[in-house]
Structures are given as structure tokens and as C-alpha cells.
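Before going further, it is useful to explain how the protein records used in this thesis are read. An example of such a record is reproduced below.

***
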Amino acid sequence: MKTVLKLICITLFIISCNKEEEIKETCVVDNPIEELFWLKQIKTGLEQSASASKAEIYEYTYKQQRVFSVNSCVGCSDSKTDIYNCAGNVMCEFGGIAGLNTCPDFDTEATNKKLLWKNHNQPIIDKDIYDCTTTDNYTITDVVLNGNILKITITFSGCSADSDRIYVVDSGEILETSPPQRLLKLEFLKEESCLAQFTRELEFDINNLQISSINELVLSIEGWNNDIIYQY
């Protein structure tokens, strides 16, 4: 009997190891939002949804593996976020009507946060993403603020005018100048080596940068020498 139990334990251990290796192998991708079939399906479903809700997909490192968070209703009172591993299995659940929190250590243990996709053009306010955002693959040629709409014109090289990821990220820090100042970066990700030159005008709704107690901010955009006065 002991021999049988030992064989069962060994078999279960081997199966568990094989599953872990399969998940690790699945995660060896450069662009998970396109190369992981299940994650691409989720993104496509959110893009085609009739709902006007804001949705976001992030990548993290958690428990020594790549994981992906999906929030299909950012800012909603009953918003629910699911954390998936590379195989598309749900590891953690947060929020929802039931107020779930199945991974209480996620906020402290998850690292390497990276925005993969969102369906809205508002800035992301996040210090970790701000610190990791690169700005060396384009040149800002013009910045115009019209009401809440920030227009940034850039030139860049590549094989096409398309991009893999575009967003403005705010450092989350309010500098105590007069008026107060916010620090911004633009990430325009292109994983191409072509040398053709392109120009694009990008638009962002920045009303989520407003501070309720004041009506004026200075916006400092990395790569642009002139500060922008934002009055609201």
C-alpha cells in the first residue's frame, strides 16, 4: 500500500511540474495581448462590447510568473478585476458585488506593472508605470491644449504609422509649485526597425488629472520644453 501511495504522489508531482513547465513555456511571448489566444479573445470581446465602460488589461509579475489583470468596468462601483495566468486560468478575483479579495497579498507582492491595452484615452496615473515609461523613440513637435483635450504631435521612425501601445502616464505626484505641477510622459511603443519617417497627432482627455480644490495646473511633459497651463 505504501508503495502504491508513493507512486501516486510521484505521479501527481510529475503532472504538477509538467503543468508548471507548460505555463512557463506559454508565457515566452513578446506581445501577450496578441500572442496569447485567450487574452486576445478577451480584448476583442471588450472592444466589441456595446457597453461604454472603460476597460483595461495590465501585466504583472506575481508568484514568480507573468500574470494579467482584466478590469472590464474601470471606475464602476461594482467593478470586478480578474487575474489570469498565462494559460488563461483565473488566479485571483477582486471587487464585484460580493467584494471579493482572493489574493490579499497581490498589492504588495505583484511587481513590474505594465499597461497592455485600454479602450479609453485618459492618462494613467501610476508612479510605477511612469518610472518605467520610455520616451526615446519619438520626438514631440507640438503640444496644444483645448479645454480637456491634450493634443500631442510626434515624429518617429518605423514601418508604418501604427503603434503597439499609446498612452499618457502621470507620475501620481503633485509638485507644490504655484500653480501645482503634474509630471507626464507619453509612451508610443513601436517594436519595428524600419527607418521610414511618420508624423501623428494624438489626443487625450485629461479631465481625470483635475484636483478638486484648485482650478489650475501646470503640466510638464517629458520631451517638451514648454510647460502647459491647464485651467478648468
In short: The two ends are 76 Å apart (CA to CA). Residues 2-26 form the longest helix (25 residues). Residues 4-19 have pLDDT under 50 and may be disordered. The first strand starts at residue 56 and ends at 62.
